[in-house]
Amino acid sequence: MIENPVLRGFHADPSFCRVGEDYYIATSTFEWYPGVQIYHSRDLVNWALVARPLRRASQLDMRGNPDSCGIWAPCLSHADGKFWLVYTDVKRLSGAFKDAHNYIVTCETIDGDWSDPIYVNSSGFDPSLFHDADGRKYFLNMRWNHRGPGSGLNPANDLFDGIELQEWHPERGLLGEVSTIYLGTDLGLTEAPHLFQRGGWYYLTTAEGGTGYDHAVTMARSRDLRGPYETHPQKHLMTARFAPDSPLQRVGHGQYVEGPDGRVWHSFLCGRPLPGPHGPFCALGREAGVAECEWREDGWLYLKGGGMVPPLTAPGAERVPDAAVSHDFRGAALPGEFQWLRTPYPERIFTLNGQGLRLIGRESLGSWFEQALVARRQQHHAYQAACVVKAAPPNWQRAAGLTTYYSRHKFHAALITHEAGVGRCVRIVSCPGDVSEALVLYPLVAVPEGPITLSVQVDRATQQFFWAAEGQAAQALGPVLDASVISDEGGVGEHGSFTGAFVGMLAHDLTGQGWSADFTRFDYAPQG
Question: Is 370 a catalytic residue?
Answer without folding.
Answer: yes
